[in-house]
Fold each of these.
Amino acid sequence: MTHSLEKFISSLEQLLFLTVSAFFALIPLFIWHPVTKFLRVVFFDLLGLRKKVVFKNLKIAFPEWTQVKRKKCAQKSFELFLLNMIEFLRCGFMPVWPGSTIENKELLESTQMQARERGTTTVGVVFHMSNWEAVGQTLWRHGFKNSTISKSAGSPFADRFLTFLRQRNGMGSMLISGAKGSVYRQILGCIADGRLIGFPMDQHRYGSPYIDFLGKPATTNESFVTIQQRQNLPVLLTYPVRTGLGKGKLVFEPFEVPVKKSTESKEEFSLRLLLEVNKRIADVVRKYPEQYFWLHNRWK
């Protein structure tokens, strides 16, 4: 395939992406909102899409809750998941949470300034809270270059679609591929360029250690520790919080990386750091349970 033909096909593909986004953007969010409730009734309540997984997860995380309370949380969480998707699909033309603010912006600025003085950058511990696509877009609108590690959506076409919309809104995407060391090389590029790094920490990863999360061990990505220690990256807990329809804020909280004890092995230190990460994420999830993404099978 010639270069000019590849470029032509790529342009047609991007036109298709924009057409899809335009369809969702033309319909106001206040109309989409009741649609999400209807879709929740059909797909979650009646057809049971991911229903067993959601209730299993909520029972693990909140064993003290009544079944009625779990049901309300599950239904609201499913509706918000659909709303998150619609907000993202619109972002070819309408940004996700266009008026979003940054809570503790001074903390982010000072942490990043100190990191740049040392020749490194800040890594944000991110997780599937609220509309996670708002993280990169909010940072970009406030003048912060950023990239987030992301898994494949399941097909090259879907990956290109997601990457296109993300890059259109100032968010870099470090896609995990089969090439060994590809993400690490991209991280080194982010450090050189001064880009903030988003590191997802609540995804199942085969071969990783099982660390307590909301009362039950779940695999937790140990490569985070390796990269953080090797590059001496300062860490901030980073998460979005929805405050209304099409509205939200991006929150940064300080995260003190523990000092490795002389008596600790590498493995012991790694487990201690990952346990602290999971504890901090769990605190946020308990604070905003309806906004967490309960549809994925966190405890495989």
Amino acid sequence: MALALLFSAMMEGCQKSPAFSKCHWTDPVNVAMEKEHMKQIQFQQPGDPAEVAQCVNVPIPELTNVEDVLVKISAFLINTADLLTLQGFYPKNDPMSSTLGNEAVGVVQAVGTKVETLTPGDKVVLFSLDNWSEYKLVHQADVLKISDEFLAARLSSGGTLVVYGAMSGQPISIGPATLVFGDIRLCGFWLTPYLQQLSVHDRKTLYLELETLMRQSKLSFPVTKVYSIDCVNEALEHAQRPSIGGKIFFQLN
């Protein structure tokens, strides 16, 4: 849910940050190949994220569907859920896919002939999955155009405790007396399928609400470090350190 914030941070000058790290790309590709190919993060089997993830060259997807949009990814962050997917604790979004990445923002490069609400140059948030690559081909309903501008402390009686992550791997600890005499309900929440079942209208409404909170400075986050995409192993190692103090994400040229 940090997409609007991520895009804001990227657009407000992440390249000016002293924490930007760019690795040397060593793949023996020539200029002609680079024009037809893109960098993409893949993994073939679960394990230590910093060891199993690879930055590889793959063909840039072709725009063939009249309702599709080709997006050049500008930035994506390392979500803890991505680390758990690499480790094998979370299932892949697509069991047959070797890619991952739950969050990304970018700029529209090309649109199908039946796309009327988007044009090349539009800045967008992606609702799609498996976004860790330089380009992403998606249906027009899977992006949201955004503008250039950009919880209660405790449960009361009858409240609901929502468990929305398994990052620590620890069991939930809540006393039975609190549950019974406080009339407390306990439920789980997994963001990915929730977003997928939302209508296009509801998804856009949700992200526009996030943008409003960002404009009002009610929603923000610190950026610890920005990496180039070919620094994936270094970035994933960094993201697993305790108390990193903020978000780590990738910025693409």
Amino acid sequence: MDRALRKIVVLAKQIAPLCAAWLVILLAVSTEGASPVVADSRPRIVAFGDSLTAGLGVQVDESYPAQLQRRLDSLGYHYRVINAGVSGDTTAGGLRRVSWILNSKPELVILELGANDGLRGIPVDETQQNLRQIVRRLQEAQVTVILAGMKLPPNYGQDYTTRFEAMYRTLAKERQVAFIPFFLEGVGGSALLNQADGLHPTSEGYKVVVEHLLKVLSPMLSEREQKTNPSRQHGCRGVGQPAFAQYTHNRSDDGSVTRDDLGFLEKRVVDAVDENERDQYVIQAGDSAIIRRPFRHVRHCRQRLDQ
């Protein structure tokens, strides 16, 4: 028995180095070509709310914060949207979470809370005080706030529902914050845009929510970018989507699009930004190439040049 045990020990000593060598090789292969983790340095927008923000009943990528992220990306706004929605949360719960929200170091917070307070019949004064403290603490941390108002079903009584809705307007004026009168504008009460419970939007409903939100958010983000980089200001006014310049050019024999082509397009653009700020997209279409440049720093300009 001792002799057999000694043989096992000797064999183990011989195998161990081989195992270690193979482990090193496997680790090297598994990490070869792996991309280093790059920290996301984009300024942060925190969606702070309850189940309407969390996206109860829809896929994570269909919640309003996820859809907002995609819309901001498509519009050229370089912000990271963080979903800080907690289903069932009240304003009291939100107040307890403010420190956690601030740990995310947001530049902007979209505050959507209070619906659960109303559904539970919590006194309006209590809800308003909680919201007031939340907004105050965010502002003290130099965070910009967008306050989203809510409404209640009429069966809660006219006096209560009226005071509840007015609470948001009063607070927005008092704290001088951007205000969305009704977070579910165009969605609330719609059987097509809400889930079976009649309270939470579907994926399509959240698309509507995001578009209404952008009417308030987009001008704010553009203004912030202009203050950060004044060279991006070029006098375009009005409300709408970022401008595009588009020009259809017959391709050369080899199918390429030359710098001269881009130069011709340059002359057709009234509100241009410097070369470093332009993203160039070329879409091949039949015998022509469509050169399409989004000018994301043209402030709310609806100009579109097509020829």
